[in-house]
């Protein structure tokens, strides 16, 4: 009995040793096969074998939805849609997620919950059960170093992985993924919080997901209260602008049919305080679009300007305020005109390469922006401007006459809107908004003065704003009348002084 047990133990030991020996021999053989074609043959077979083994052990198929596509140029739409879809699924407690991530919500009293990293959520679709997992991975080694001259670290790569059974392959890859994208988009529209972007701190910022993003834009929530309902301007003109905006928003098919990029340029011009910036806020609120406010003097090169454009999203208004002050866009044109006067006959709207290079060199020496007129023209209607669609570009200026005609021609700036001094109608509108009065004995005096003197809506609005607890409509209107009378006196004094100076200049000429 003992002998039998010993022999079986010995046999077991022997077979163990045999197996180990076999493994060592196989490893040696494998080494020996290295460099030979045979290894490829065995490699192929072993890979096929391991795939079969894996499909037995792990029968699920997967789809990965990564956060960034195209070399981190921009965030993938599919990822954003999947994220929105899964946030809703988490909220509705389908799949019972145990570890959640909380972020500030649009509603200040609530938190937006989504599944934490490595968490899973199950979903049902037409009888198929699928599982989503939130995953992160460290940045790729071939991307920029984690810390680069004091810039914040590169964020981990985030992705969602969808697991499903082989038998649901067609359903999941077809209808289910379409369903996720559509539903995700609907959730995004519902939860949309409009943003105001700026390019001033263009070295990246923390994004709405609490992660570092090296986008050229940084943003805050856009919360400007101005709407067309509180913007004082000629009612017909206001209606025309609103109709134009509506036609643009609903014009996707029209733009496709006539073969134009789905974008529209507006030029707002007029003296300071006439409501140009206010109009942009009203436009954004009317259309429910984001606003990208470009500080052109902070853009170093034309390439940077293009990058800014590429990173804007659709349904947005791209604004360049005070375009005449931002850059010397007219400088090259002036040079060219001079040359034309000297007999050079060049095609309108072009500048020579040499002129462009000279200007860039001058600017480089001065350490300023190297954005040129052609860079801005390209930004408005070059090939890149068509990417994405549904964008409005707005330029504002106090001096429309200073702008290069090429910059504001129709097709680039399609609609020119003049914002002017306060007219009687605009005053009555402001009185209703600020003081809630439709009529008042002082209205006639104000109207008569407004016909004689220029005052901006900003100044009228300021006078109509009660500044102390006891002030009412009457005292505010009295203050406005006083301010208008003062403005009239100042204007008359200025005119008289101008005449005096002109007279003495004439006398000097006569003496000469
Ligand atoms: N047409 C208007 N209707 C209602 N409010 C106005 C209007 N115009 C100006 N205001 C008020 O005056 C203030 C200044 O206006 P805004 O900043 O829009 O002027 P602007 O034309 O952009 O001036 P600038 O050329 O100096 O940039 C705003 O806060 C706004 O409340
Ligand atoms: Mg302004």
From TrEMBL:
The chain crosses the membrane at residues 17-38. It holds the Pfam family AAA_assoc. Residues 503-512 have a biased composition (Acidic residues). InterPro entries: AAA+_ATPase, AAA_N_dom, At3g28540-like_C, ATPase_AAA_core, ATPase_AAA_CS, Mitochondrial_chaperone_BCS1, P-loop_NTPase. Residues 262-423 form the AAA+ ATPase domain. Residues 338-367, 492-502 have a biased composition (Basic and acidic residues). GO terms for biological process: response to stress. One of its GO terms (molecular function) is ATP hydrolysis activity. Keywords: ATP-binding, Magnesium, Membrane, Nucleotide-binding, Transmembrane, Transmembrane helix. Its cofactor is Mg(2+). The keyword Cell wall biogenesis/degradation does not apply. It catalyses: ATP + H2O = ADP + phosphate + H(+). The keyword Transferase does not apply. Residues 334-367, 492-512 are annotated as: Disordered. Belongs to the AAA ATPase family. BCS1 subfamily. This is AAA-ATPase ASD mitochondrial.
């Amino acid at each position: 009995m003992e002998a039998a047990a010993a022999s079986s133990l010995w046999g077991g030991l022997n077979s163990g040793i045999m197996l180990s020996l076999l493994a060592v021999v196989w490893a040696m053989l494998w080494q020996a096969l290295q460099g030979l074609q045979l290894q490829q043959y065995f490699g192929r077979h072993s890979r096929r074998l391991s795939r079969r083994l894996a499909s037995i052990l792990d029968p699920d198929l997967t789809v990965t939805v990564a956060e960034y596509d195209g070399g981190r140029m921009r965030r993938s739409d599919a990822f954003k849609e999947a994220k929105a879809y899964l946030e809703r699924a988490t909220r509705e407690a389908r799949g019972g997620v145990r570890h959640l991530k909380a972020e500030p919500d649009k509603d200040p009293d609530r938190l937006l919950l989504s599944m934490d990293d490595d968490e899973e959520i199950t979903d049902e679709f037409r009888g198929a059960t699928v599982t989503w997992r939130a995953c992160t991975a460290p940045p790729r080694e071939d991307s920029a170093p984690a810390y680069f001259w004091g810039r914040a670290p590169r964020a981990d790569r985030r992705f969602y992985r969808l697991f499903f059974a082989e038998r649901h392959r067609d359903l999941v890859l077809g209808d289910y993924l379409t369903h996720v994208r559509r539903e995700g988009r609907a959730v995004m529209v519902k939860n949309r919080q409009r943003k105001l972007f700026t390019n001033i701190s263009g070295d990246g910022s923390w994004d709405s997901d609490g992660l570092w993003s090296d986008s050229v834009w940084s943003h805050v929530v856009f919360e400007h209260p101005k709407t067309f309902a509180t913007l004082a301007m000629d009612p017909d003109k206001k209606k025309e602008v609103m109709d134009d905006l509506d036609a643009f928003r609903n014009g996707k098919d029209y733009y496709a049919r006539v073969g134009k990029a789905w974008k529209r340029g507006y030029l707002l011009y007029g003296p300071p305080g006439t409501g140009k910036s206010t109009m942009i806020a009203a436009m954004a609120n009317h259309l429910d679009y984001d606003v990208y406010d470009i500080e052109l003097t902070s853009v170093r090169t034309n390439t940077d300007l293009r990058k800014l454009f590429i990173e804007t999203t659709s349904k947005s208004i791209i604004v360049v305020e005070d375009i005449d002050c931002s850059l010397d866009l007219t400088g090259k044109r002036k040079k060219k005109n001079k040359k034309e006067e000297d007999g050079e006959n060049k095609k309108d709207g072009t500048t020579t390469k040499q002129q462009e290079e000279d200007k860039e060199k001058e600017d480089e020496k001065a350490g300023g922006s190297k954005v040129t007129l052609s860079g801005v023209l390209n930004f408005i209607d070059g090939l890149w401007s068509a990417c994405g669609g549904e964008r409005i570009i707005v330029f504002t200026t106090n001096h429309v006459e200073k702008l290069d005609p090429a910059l504001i021609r129709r097709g680039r700036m399609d609609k020119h809107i003049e914002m002017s001094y306060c007219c009687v109608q605009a005053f009555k509108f402001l009185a209703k908004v600020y003081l809630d009065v439709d009529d008042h004995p002082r209205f006639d005096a104000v109207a008569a003065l407004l016909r004689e003197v220029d005052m901006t809506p900003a100044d009228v609005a300021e006078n109509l704003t009660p500044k102390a607890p006891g002030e009412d409509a009457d005292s505010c209107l009295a203050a406005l009348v006083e301010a208008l009378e003062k403005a009239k006196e100042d204007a008359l004094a200025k005119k008289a002084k101008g005449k005096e100076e002109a007279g003495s200049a004439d006398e000097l000429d006569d003496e000469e």
